[in-house]
Design brief:
Layout lengths: L1 H6 L6 H16 L14 H43 L2 H9 L7 H12 L1
């Protein structure tokens, strides 16, 4: 749903983030107004809800850690590949011909830092 709105350029930037937060908030809390909660008088329902929310958040954190590890592995692969290719004069010459002599500073620092160590 959000992807369709983004692709149709109906939601962009901050609007997209606000919509995403609203959907997530409604998924967790429902359509209740702030400060008003649908809790049962005995409190069991609220404890179950709290446990469910905790488990959901723990799962999200695990997914974030997994994605971070994947990104780190991909970045390490790219750095090593660039380091290997930049050792070849033919590749450097090809980059110059195509006017691609520069790379993002942070990436360059990582490539040359690893190359020197």
């Amino acid at each position: 749903m959000l992807a369709n709105a983004y692709e149709a350029k109906l939601l962009q930037g901050k609007q997209l983030l606000k919509a995403r937060r609203l959907i997530e908030t409604r998924r967790v809390h429902g359509k209740t107004l702030r400060g008003r909660r649908n809790l049962s008088p005995d409190g069991n329902n609220s404890a179950q809800n709290l446990l469910r929310v905790y488990e959901r958040e723990a799962t999200k954190q695990q997914q974030v850690v997994t994605k971070a590890r994947i990104c780190e592995a991909k970045l390490l692969f790219i750095i090593n590949a660039l380091k290997s290719m930049l050792r070849r004069p033919e590749f450097v010459s090809l980059l110059r011909i195509q006017k691609l002599e520069t790379m993002p500073q942070h990436l360059a620092e990582m490539v040359y830092e690893r190359e020197n160590s």
